[in-house]
Amino acid sequence: MNYKNIDIEERAKQAVTYFKSGYNCAQSVLLAYADLFEMDLQTAARIAAPFGGGMGRLREVCGTVSGMFMIVGLAIPVDNPTDIESKTRNYALVQKLAERFREENGSIICRELLKLDVKQESPRPETRTESYYKKRPCVELVRFAAMLIGEELKALE
């Protein structure tokens, strides 16, 4: 597939809109690109739902990073377990994205990005309020991840 004509800025805006409407960070990134892979929004939202809050609010890998990785799985599919070349390309892009995200944001770990000292919180998500958005960098991370994956998709052959 040719990704050269992706409007990255528009995709990033859409990801932020999804996030601000209540989707989690992983969902927001995946939803912004789901149409490129003929994936309906409901399916994309369901697949990405457990990855919000650093994987179910475990505060592990940032959901925006997981969202990017899911897109890599769609863009460089590995449906044959013996296809070492595709696995290698897939993993190489995952590692590149993780490194670029880490370089820009200091970590790919949710609790570190949010400066939390707990490893796990209640499974109940926080209510999205103005205060919520002011104390967390999540909107910016959603935007950054959506931009980053867009750039990498455009660079794919």
Describe the structure.
It is a single chain. The protein is mainly α and 157 residues long. It has one domain. Helices cover 62% and strands 0% of the residues. The chain has nine helices and no strands. Helix 2 packs parallel to helix 5. The radius of gyration is 15 Å and the shape is globular. 33% of the residues are buried. The model has no long low-confidence stretch (mean pLDDT 95).
Descriptive terms for the model:
157 residues; mainly alpha; globular
How does the SSE layout of this entry go?
Blueprint: H1 8-20, H2 25-33, H3 41-48, H4 52-55, H5 63-75, H6 84-105, H7 110-113, H8 130-135, H9 138-155
Q: Which stretches are poorly predicted, pLDDT < 50 over at least 5 residues?
A: none
Strand content: under 5%
Name the helix and strand elements from N-terminus to C-terminus, one letter apiece. Answer: HHHHHHHHH
As for the number of domains, it is 1
Q: How is the biggest beta sheet arranged?
A: none
